Amino acid sequence: MSDSLAGLAALRRGIQEARTTGRTLVAVRAWEPPEGEALYLRQPEPSWARLWADDARQRLERAFDLAAGGPPADLRIVRRVVRGSAGPVLCSIAASPDDLLVIGMARPRGPFARLHRRPVHRFVPARAECEVLVVAGPRLLPREARILRRSDLVAPPDRATAGR
Fold first, then answer.
1. What domains sit in the chain, N to C, each tagged with a CATH number?
2. DSSP string covering 50-96, please?
């Protein structure tokens, strides 16, 4: 699960499905070293790997805060932070035919965004052993997306006190 808008939409839908069906919600955050496994294996540094794993745990908790105001108290929730590529990790965790896998589908903008994204929304439905529900992220205007991505939104200074 990512903390992108599509990931948050998928988490909200997963919460809704878990409530409706009475299933346990398994929230999964897959992570890899930023430079990739091949480069990391050349000079492995366990302290960096722990740092990235901690960051993944924090992002998972932040996703619950952003999507639902915190983890819902009325659901059984299992949190999993797994090192690996998102597609194979999700397919291995949701391996039972009775599972429901809810994933987000981001809408990349521009040719470079399309080239650098791994299409998890294509990989998982083609290989999963369970039912897959793909949730599209919201459609936004370019300016809206830029504003929502900024995490340091600050109110403009008061004009009356700015000149003093």
1. 5-162 (3.40.50.620)
2. HHHHHHHHHHHHHHHHHHHSS--TTS-EEEEEEES-HHHHHHHHS-S
